[in-house]
Amino acid sequence: MGQAYKIFGMAVKPHYLAIATLLGTFGGAAYFTGGGSSTDNSNKIAIDEKVNQTDVSSENIDVEKLLDNLLKDSNEEKK
């Protein structure tokens, strides 16, 4: 039948221990690095305001202009 470890009075096969170790390691890493919801929504709000300030009703949206404005604003905030 093979070797088994006694854990809490029960015989546990080595491959069950290996599977449990892998699941615990990767499951724990995924749980703790999951991100979740962030309480800092200031960046999202700033981007939403910039989009609302531009003329979105026109058929052509100037993406380069939007990116330039966003980069200028972010550089001003860092200073």
UniProtKB/TrEMBL annotation:
Annotated compartments: Mitochondrion membrane
InterPro entries, per database record: ATP19
Keywords in alphabetical order: Membrane, Mitochondrion, Transmembrane, Transmembrane helix
Gene Ontology CC annotations of this record: mitochondrial membrane
Transmembrane segments: 15-34
Matches recorded under Pfam families: ATP19
GO biological process: proton motive force-driven ATP synthesis
Major location (coarse): mitochondrion
Stated name of the protein: Uncharacterized protein
Natural source organism: Zygotorulaspora mrakii
Lineage: Eukaryota, Fungi, Dikarya, Ascomycota, Saccharomycotina
